[in-house]
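Bug: token stream looks shifted between consecutive jobs. Job 1:
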Amino acid sequence: MKNIKFLLWGVLIGISALWFLADDLIPEPFTYFSFRFVVNQYTGILSISLMSIAMLLATRPRWLENYLNGLDKGYRLHKWLGISALITALTHFWFTHGTKWMVGWGWLERPLRQRQRLGQNAGAGLEQWLGGMRGIAESIGEWAFYLALILMIVSLVKKIPYRWFVKFHKWLAAAYLALVFHSVVLIKFEYWHQPIGWVTAVLLTVGAVSALLILFNLAGKKIRYQGTIRSARPLQKIDGLDLTINVPTWQGHKAGQFAFVHALNDTEKPHPFSFASAWDPASRDIRFCIKALGDYTDTLAQRWKANDKLLIEGPYGRFTFADDAQQQIWIATGIGITPFMARLEELAQSTHKQTVDLFYSYRESDPVLIAELQQKSAEAGINLHLRCSAEQSRLTSADIINTVKDLTKTSFWYCGISAFGDTLCKDLCRQGLPASRFHQELFEMR
């Protein structure tokens, strides 16, 4: 989490610093309208820069995962960038249209607009052409802002189903392209000859290409593979589906990673699911255990049957248990057990020197799944701690901490309910655990 916080602040400070090298927030002479102009330039550039990076992250670039520590962290950064862009865009909108309203109300008096004098250089013709496009760019930018505002608000409302969120969110790419045109025309021409302009040009180019990839469904296309459902077993009591898929062209994955899955020729957008099995190149089977958590996953047990064709995109993620800790503590709640099941298979097939304790807390669970978990834990040589919260007390931080031999040589891997993970991380950090040794999958992709 610290990495993405640093990246967010780094982008905000970096773009701001480049802008301050090019202009002054306190213009001379200082008037409301001269201040309004520079604020609009600053907030406009900052907003479109943030949106450009968010657009890049929306394409799910795997080459960025090592820097972000996983696609899940990339999506969290994408969300924060979007919220920051929304705040700066609202400020930009207020200084643009709020000023017009205040003039209409008689609170302000608009100064006479002076004709801009164009230089006698090679760029004068381009500058003149951009000036002629100003009115169109302002209108397009205004309507694109309204569309983006609605779509961003929809994205933040958790009650809206994921499938509708994905469909609405895609059209932010179209709004972004309109805002790129708005920005190119209205950014102060002198900026293009300075570092702020060069960086903005690169970001706009990257963002525009990313937006086109999203609109034409090309993001992630190179790592999509077709598979056939080998078996689909309903998970008793927990209202879920145990899915085994044969994917002949699959290139392999690590335990703890995930993929986006959807049925071939299905209008539904891909949903992310964690692998529940280690990679077996001999069978080329992959497994997912999926819990019904929403309107789409609620119907999978009825919709996905043996021999159905699926598309799998991935693998993604860096929740891969790779560290040098002497002891690893794994904690799972509910369907969060899936990445640990995959890791158990990996450990059973190799030698390991780490001491591993797995805590699994559940209210209801499939008896076949529990029996399999017990067997695989024994084969992998790890210590399994089961806690049924419906029959026993809830799992607490104290229960987990009591099993730690040396906190300085222990790492924690958590997948499950976010609130419990956050509480556990805070409790452990208070005990002296470095935050970097607590690994938590941020599996909320919105």
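Job 2, same session, no restart:
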Amino acid sequence: MTANAHPGPVGLTVKGAVAYIEVQRASRHNAIDVETAKAYLECCREVDNNDSVRAVVLCGQGASFGVGGDLTEFKLDAPRSARKIIGPLHQAVSILVSLDAPVIAKVRGNVAGGSMSLVLACDLAMASANTKFNFAYTNLGTSADLGGSWHLPHIVGLRSAMQIALLNEAIDAERARELGIVNKVVPEDELDAEVERLAQRLASGPTKAMGRMKRQLRQALSNGLHGQLNAEAISFVEGAKTKDFQEAVDAILGKRTPRFVGA
């Protein structure tokens, strides 16, 4: 286990093949200020450069995942502060969605604004039963960031996205599951263990293949069928060159469980 390399507003811990990126501002409900945004990007870059990481968990310290931007940053020069927060976080989201390693959101408590957009950007999300979501942007007289306006309609559909984004009604955990915002809801006292099990399962899988699958599914949102068929053919052939593909073939033919190495 690698100790927390970032004792500031965002912590990065690597345990085995799983990286944990945690916003550490529990006293501010994990609201994101300029320094937090910069630290988040730094952690994402470190994960991207660490070939041993095969799964990533995003989480927040304390009782809430996060409430979006720290409004105290916007008291003086709001446009300047917005640019200084959004710039690093948009780079961070771009890194997270391009990782081969699956990214899991571990969600509890209040989740609003940019923090909700981070959850939407993850590959999978698990929430405790006490979780409450609120897109919240128009309540602040602004619009979405961190890819929220792209991910939300793709996940829940345009009509539901309009309702969520324009009315800013609280969404409880079970409704979030029904909408596809999270994959699973568990009791609060089981969340940490359930996410750990999921992360370890993914980290023991064929990481490069998962990365190709993630990219295929995202490409499918804009590709036509013929374009997707071409992309699949190229990706499958590339996958057939990997150690994990050969291991899977040998294991299946040998009637044993494959032992993937993520390469």
